Amino acid sequence: MTGVEIALAISAVGSAVSAVGASSAGSAAKKAANFNAAVGEANARAARRDATENFDRHQRDAARRGGTLRNQLVSLDALEDQAMEEELDAQTILHQGEISAMGFERGAGLDRSSGRTAQRAGFVSAAGSLLKGGASLSEALL
Predict the structure, then answer these.
(1) 74: phi > 0 → left, psi -120 to 50 → alpha, else beta; which?
(2) Sign, Cα dihedral of 70, 61, 44, 42
(3) SS (H, E, C) 84-124
(4) I need a labelling partner for 92 at 20 to 30 A (CA). Which of 55, 61, 101, 110 fits?
(5) Which region, left, alpha or beta, applies to residue 75 given φ > 0 means left and ψ of -120 to 50 means alpha?
(6) What is the pLDDT of residue 124?
(7) Which long-range contacts (CB under 8 A, 24 or more apart) does 61-64 make?
């Protein structure tokens, strides 16, 4: 083999290695993004579960407070007002939990999208490396 042939072979191997590296990097980024998305989805489930537990705890506490008020012979209007405030607080707990969960889900969706984009970018970069190597090789041969 002549020096030119060796240089061309090295260039071709370099282009192939660069292409494989770019493709692997894109795939790794997608795997990382999918992992992050799975964590976000788990966090969303946990936020909903926590909100439900807090709601249940609040309802039990409200029932205890209501019983105490009834035992103290508080007016019916005061009991009704207290019950409405307790229900509003309980619904607020659920609403805040849902907002938190939706934020985690949106983050998970963005992570998945980012992963797909990174994988595509890796494929495009790999193709570019191969095309560049092919162009260099054809220039050297002409």
Answers:
(1) beta
(2) negative
(3) HHHHHHHHHHHHHHHHHHHHHHHHHHHHHHHHHHHHHHHHH
(4) 110
(5) beta
(6) 84
(7) 62/86, 62/89, 62/90
Which pairs with CB-CB distance under 8 Å and at least 24 residues apart come from 72-75?
none
Residue pointed to by tokens 């997608």: 30
Name which of 90, 103, 86, 87 is nearest 47 in CA terms: 103
Q: Quote the DSSP letter at residue 1.
A: -
Cα 95 to Cα 10, 53, 91, 92, 98: the distances in Å are 62, 13, 6, 5, 5
**What is the domain count for the chain?**
1
| 24, 28, 33, 35: CA torsion to nearest 10 | 150
Q: Is the separation of the CB atoms in 23 and 126 below 8 Å?
A: yes
Domain that holds residue 87: 3-141
pTM of the full structure? 0.64
- Band of pLDDT at residue 84, cut at 50, 70 and 90: confident
* Inter-residue contact 94 to 66 (CB < 8 Å): no
DSSP conformation class of 56? H
